[in-house]
Design a protein that fits this description.
Layout lengths: L1 E5 H11 L14 E7 L2 E7 L3 E8 L1 E4 L1 E6 H10 L4 E7 L2 E5 L4 E7 L15 E4 L1 H12 L13 E7 L3 E7 L3 E8 L11 E6 H11 L6 E5 L3 E5 L3 E6 L18 E6 H12 L7 E7 L4 E8 L3 E8 L2 E4 L2 E6 H9 L6 E8 L2 E7 L5 E5 L5
Antiparallel strand pairs: 1-5, 1-7, 2-3, 2-6, 3-4, 4-17, 6-9, 7-8, 8-9, 10-15, 11-12, 11-14, 12-13, 13-26, 15-16, 16-17, 18-22, 18-24, 19-20, 19-23, 20-21, 24-25, 25-26
């Protein structure tokens, strides 16, 4: 194997797939890049056995071949290099990376040991604009559980229905976020309904890539895995086994208090109050419909106390007090337009509250009050 490649192109490709590298003392091959030089393209793969990434870049191929190269030394070397081109050549059990001023010799592994990254051949597929997919994932993934104790919660559920569209849902049982994308906004939806439980880490990595892509994203799946694909990049991930919780019954439809709040004002009040919250991150809301005000009280035995009182655009219903985790509220606001008006409706002290952007029925987040 021997090829000439632009440093910037190779660096970009390696940086993209490095997130799939594994760390396993018993499988050092997972700490390598699989490099395939063929035709006029160099393909680079990495996997940790849970996810696998493959991307490519153009190169001048002098000799086709394949090598599994120690990943970190190669990427670190290229990141420090301030030259335009390098030649990469396989020499027995090493790979030489040569520029005008430097020559690095890198360890290689037996290529036969590199795990096969499967090609998913689903019977139908989803196609959606990358930016739309990334935004939807960012709006719900914060609500997913970060613990793998219940894998079905450490995921994002993607449900497709040709008559409805796509729904993205994340929950950790204390909060839940859903984003809806209508069928007409999608480029393609499978004829049969689908429900994919995609691991949270996979969602985070696909989102990272999708935010940089200008072309549409294609999603192929079979019962155990899904592939997220662009023309020069694909990412394959296992799917989570199990059932996503049925949540339609917990979405509140009636409220004791309905409010409309300026996003900047709400966010500022929460951040200031958070300085004085206890280790439970609790703040107490008092709603006064007569005065159209909200008071947020935060108390901590060591920090002291803070009381935020502000008028809102709407405060309709009955006087009510309820406590919430202020961090959960800030997370929900982070998924919404920072210049918008926020609907914040509370059902009761022991039932979920609803947060969504005024005039946008495609997204909502519900959060359970705290019992303190």
């Amino acid at each position: 194997m021997k090829f000439l490649v632009l440093v910037e192109n190779l660096r970009k490709a390696l940086s993209l797939v490095e997130h799939a590298l594994g760390k396993n003392a018993h499988l050092p091959i997972l700490e390598s890049f699989c490099i395939v030089a063929k035709g006029s393209t160099v393909s680079i793969s990495a996997t940790n056995l849970e996810i696998g990434m493959v991307t490519s870049c153009s190169a001048k191929i002098e000799k086709e071949g394949t090598a599994a190269v120690a990943a970190r030394p190669l990427l670190n070397f290229l990141q420090q290099l301030n030259e335009a081109k390098v030649t990469i050549e396989q020499k027995e059990k090493t790979v030489l990376v040569t520029s005008d001023s430097y020559t690095a010799s890198l360890q290689t592994y037996e290529i036969e040991e590199f795990p096969l990254i499967p090609v998913v051949k689903g019977t139908d597929h989803v196609q959606i604009e990358s930016s739309l997919f990334a935004h939807a994932c960012e709006q719900v993934s914060f609500a997913s559980s970060t613990s793998d104790f219940r894998p079905e919660l450490n995921s994002v559920c993607i449900r497709t229905d040709p008559q409805d569209g796509i729904r993205f849902v994340g929950t950790d049982t204390f909060r839940l976020a859903e984003k809806y994308i209508a069928t007409k906004e999608c480029l393609r939806i499978p004829e049969a309904k689908q429900s994919l439980l995609v691991p949270l880490r996979t969602i985070q990595e696909v989102t990272r890539i999708a935010k940089e892509k200008l072309e549409p994203l294609t999603i192929l799946s079979d019962p155990t895995q899904a592939s997220f694909e662009w023309s020069d990049t694909r990412m394959v991930s296992r799917l989570v086994e199990g059932e996503f919780p049925e949540y339609s019954s917990v979405i509140p439809s009636t409220f004791k208090i309905e409010t409309l709040i300026s996003h900047p004002k709400f966010l500022e009040a929460l951040k200031v109050s958070g300085v004085f919250s206890s280790r439970l991150h609790d703040v107490r809301f008092s709603f006064d419909p007569k005065e159209k005000t909200i008071t947020i009280l935060a108390t901590d035995a060591l920090a002291g106390e803070n009381r935020a009182n502000f008028r809102v655009d709407k405060c309709k219903g009955e006087s009510l007090e309820a406590s919430f985790n202020y961090r959960y509220l800030i997370d929900a606001l982070g998924a919404l337009n920072p210049k918008s008006k926020i609907i914040f409706n509370v059902s009761d002290t022991d039932r979920p509250a609803l947060i969504q952007e005024e005039g946008d029925g495609t997204y909502f987040c519900i959060i359970m009050p705290l019992r303190v």
